[in-house]
Every structure is written in structure tokens, then in C-alpha cells.
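Re: the 86-residue chain
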Amino acid sequence: MPGPEQLALVVVINGQPFAVEANVNAPIRTVVEKALAKSNTTGQPAENWELRNDAGALLELAKKVGDFRFPAETKLFLSLKAGVGG
């Protein structure tokens, strides 16, 4: 169970969900990095990916996790930016 400064999120990459714990004071970019590492997706650097919420809105990676006020177990969707990856 995450501590008070931690939030449990689910990041979906290529249809596969990965549980990620995030510090609410860290930039959401850290969620991208953790999800890529957990999924063993190493072909593209983190800056080539974009993170969206379940409504499809693009999330600004420099903002802190806590700024988004996600409820626990929120699903986020990680995909390569358009035109990346050939």
C-alpha cells in the first residue's frame, strides 16, 4: 500500500497495464520512466512518449503528479508521439 506521499497508478502501454507507484511531489515524467522500465520498453527514450488520461487529454510531463489530483488506481495511457519510431 502506498504511503501518504505515494499514489498507485496504472499505466497502459500497447494494451498492457503496469502498476506504478508515484511520488505526488515528483514530475509526472517519473511515471513515464517507471512504466517504461517496468514494461521493459527500452527502444525509445522517455521524451519520445506522451501520456494521456482516460479522456485522451495530453498530460504535461513537467507538472507534479499531485497537481493532477488523480484518484488511486487511475489508468493513464502511454504511447509514442506521432511520427516517432518509424
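The domain at 6-80 is CATH 3.10.20.90 (Ubiquitin-like (UB roll)).
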